[in-house]
Design brief:
It is built from 5 helices and 7 strands. It is α+β, with helices and mostly antiparallel strands. It has one domain: Aminopeptidase. A 7-stranded mixed β-sheet has the order 1-2-3-4-5-7-6, with helices on both faces. Helix 4 links the parallel strand 4 and strand 5. The chain is globular and about 50 Å long. The C terminus is likely disordered. Bound molecules: coenzyme A.
């Protein structure tokens, strides 16, 4: 049966404490764990951001993605200047933001949802919460073909620049960037 327009509707909301158990389940899904090696750090960052831990306010802002009213995954965004050690040797245009995401529900993967999530989050959320940002960066492992193709379809350009993963020396991060003029569906 074809999904209805409502079932295909995407929505975004800031993550809440109640979402943390779901986040743990998503990070444990094999299709996510294969490419998201830093699950513990992600949970710790979310807990810090949501006030579950003492210490400095964490700069990474976690959001939930809903499809047809059902939570299917999460995104996080941050100012690149706040995490500059992850981008050694690069000129960071002031205000640049970066994002990561995972669609945790296996049934929602690989059917064109990811590119809509990326494009709609950039334009409906990031442009509101970070209007001064000149561009958006995203840094998939270049071996993660599904992610690279998804981001390219959403308008990100592959810079060819590989960056180290500070948490996992076996991983590489390919810098892809999108300027506001760029997004198109292919
Ligand atoms: C990466 C992710 C967000 C992409 O979202 P998605 O909804 O699966 O992506 P889309 O369906 O929009 O696009 C997938 C693209 O990869 C292709 N693809 C699908 N499955 C694939 C696979 N197993 N291997 C290679 N390519 C694949 C599709 O054909 C499509 O490319 P095309 O438009 O050029 O034909 C999602 O798969 C995900 O969350 N994966 C697990 C976590 C992860 O890898 N996160 C990214 C960390 S940077």
């Amino acid at each position: 049966m074809r999904p209805t327009a409502d079932e295909e509707l995407l929505a975004f909301r800031p993550m809440a404490r109640d979402d943390i158990p779901q986040l743990r389940r998503w990070l444990a899904e094999p299709h996510v764990a294969e490419w998201w090696s830093s699950a513990d750090e992600t949970i710790e960052g979310v807990e810090a951001r949501l006030g579950e831990r003492v210490g400095r306010a964490h700069p990474v802002q976690p959001w939930i993605v809903e499809l047809g009213g059902r939570a299917i995954g999460f995104l996080q965004w941050y100012r690149v200047e706040d995490e500059a050690e992850w981008y050694p040797g690069l000129d960071i245009p002031p205000g640049t933001v970066a994002m990561d995401l995972a669609i945790g529900e296996p049934t929602a993967v690989g059917r064109g949802v990811g590119r809509r999530v990326v494009l709609e989050f950039c334009h409906h959320v990031l442009r509101s919460v970070a209007p001064d940002s000149p561009e958006v960066w995203i840094d998939p492992d270049p071996r993660n073909e599904r992610a690279v193709r998804c981001y390219r379809a959403a308008g990100f350009v592959d810079t060819g620049i590989d960056l180290p993963d500070l948490d996992d020396p076996t991983q590489v991060r390919r810098l892809m960037r999108m300027t506001w003029a760029g997004p198109t569906f292919r």
